[in-house]
Each structure stands twice: as C-alpha cells, then as structure tokens.
UniProtKB/TrEMBL annotation:
GO terms for molecular function: oxidoreductase activity, acting on the CH-OH group of donors, NAD or NADP as acceptor. This is SDR family oxidoreductase. Keywords: Oxidoreductase. It comes from the Bacteria. Belongs to the short-chain dehydrogenases/reductases (SDR) family. Transmembrane segments: none annotated. NCBIfam families: PRK06523.1 (NF005095).
Length: 264
C-alpha cells in the first residue's frame, strides 16, 4: 500500500505550470499532474466554467509579451519558479482555403499563438530552472506539423513545425544543465475545439458532422484505432514524460495519434 501511495504521488513537491489548462488536453494534463501530487498553476485568457480551487489560476494572454512577464513575476514571487512547464497553448485560428486566403495578420497570429507564446514563457521561466539545475519543459505540438492539410491548417501546421524545431534546439542547449525538453504531438483528440472545427467544416460543406468526421479521417489517411483520443490519454503520456521514469528522454517528439501517422 505504501509503495502504491508513493507511486501515485511521486510529483509531490513539484510546481507545474500548464498553459491553456482550463479545457481540452490542457485541463486533462493539469488534472493528471495534480493527481500525481504536483502543485499546479493554470493559465488561460479566461477561466472556463467554475474555478477549480485545487489550482492556482492566472488570467493571461500569452501572445502579449507583457502578460508573459506578469505570469513569470507572479510565479517567481509565490512559488520561486516551476519544476515542470507544459506549453499547451495553441489553436488553429486561421481561415481555410489555402495560401490565397491567408493574410499577414493570419500568419502573425498563428506564429504568436503556436510558437512565440512558448518561446517567451520558456525564456521567462528557464532562468530559475537553470539555477536549480533541474526542470522539464513539454511543448504540445501536433501531427499537423508533419502532415499538414492545406485546405484548413496551413498556417497552424507551419507554426507547429517551427515549434518542433525550436523545441529540439532548446533541448540541445539546456540538456547539460539538467533540464529536459520534450515535444508531444497529438493527433485528433475529442475536445470542444475539434468539435467546433468539425462543425464549421461540415457547415461549409453542407454535410453532417459525422460525414465530415469520416472525410477528415480519410483525408488524414485513416486512424487504425478507429477513433479520436480522449484528452486523458494524451495527458497520461505527458505525465510519464515529466516523471523521473523519463529521466533520459530529451529532444524527442512523441506522436500519439492512434496509428494515423503514415511512417514509423
């Protein structure tokens, strides 16, 4: 019984920040880290639903450099830094239709939300990790970074591909200082965001959501497991990667997509 308790609480004493942690994959990650004993800080533009008293919530827009500084200052003042940083913030906000529909502002927003928000937060919180010579940074990317759909994810896919390269480069720089940096690339997860995305595509194509879901699976080359992931399944991978069990893992990009990706 004692061994089981220690196993379940092995993140006890760790401070973790999860961005975009009020819904979807981010919420599932925050819940899983808390279950493992971590003190969890969650940031998002607004609190979604009822506030969870188990978390320390910071309202912030990570595409705003001043808000990133505000987050770092509050965390350093209250907690002395973080041991675990999960950069989960990201969204496909650009219109579909390919290159001709994407204006400069669409490209800029995609890069701000999906790349630069993580770059800024890493830069703000890494100094404390470097001081303590330990820490884990997880960047939540997407299989879209390597398997883009020009009709609907062009800017998003490009930004996530840049995040992958940045994450690998950062891991090389800080590995010798005791800090691990890992990328997680989920495929389709059953979240409110993907539901809204499918509803929008279905409306534009004048077909049902079920039909559009089938077409999306076909467009992606099929999902051998035949379903989307539950956010909790993606969170379980993140939980493993931030734990001591993954102590020799850094610089890698873990794809979790039900077998969808077309190459090994």
């Amino acid at each position: 019984m004692e061994n089981k308790r220690n196993h379940e609480n092995h993140l006890e004493g760790k401070i973790a920040l999860v961005t975009g942690g009020t819904k979807g994959i981010g919420k599932a990650i925050a819940n899983r880290l808390m279950q493992a004993g971590a003190k969890v800080i969650v940031t998002a533009r607004t609190q979604s639903g009822e506030a969870n008293p188990a978390y320390h919530f910071i309202a912030a827009d990570l595409s705003d450099p001043e808000d990133v500084i505000k987050i770092a200052n509050e965390i350093n003042e209250l907690f002395g830094g973080v041991d675990i940083l999960v950069n989960n913030m990201g969204a496909n906000t650009s219109p579909g239709g390919g290159f001709s529909t994407l204006k400069d502002e669409h490209w800029d927003e995609a890069l701000q939300v999906n790349l630069l928000s993580s770059v800024r937060l890493d830069r703000a919180l890494l100094p404390k990790m470097l001081e303590q010579k330990s820490g884990v940074i997880i960047h939540i990317s997407s299989t879209s970074s390597r398997f883009p759909i020009w009709e609907s994810t062009m800017a998003y896919s490009v930004a996530k591909a840049a995040l992958n390269t940045y994450s690998k480069t950062l891991s090389d720089e800080v590995a010798s200082h005791g800090i691990r940096v890992v990328t997680v690339s989920p495929g389709l997860n059953k979240t409110a965001a993907i539901a809204a995305f499918l509803e929008d595509l279905a409306r534009n194509a004048n077909i049902t959501v079920e039909e559009m879901t089938g077409k999306l699976f076909e467009r992606l080359g099929g999902v051998p497991m035949g379903r989307m992931a539950e956010p909790e399944e993606t969170a379980e991978l993140v939980y493993f990667l931030v734990s001591q069990r993954a102590s020799y893992i850094t610089g890698a990009n873990y794809i979790i997509d039900g077998g969808n990706f077309p190459v090994a």
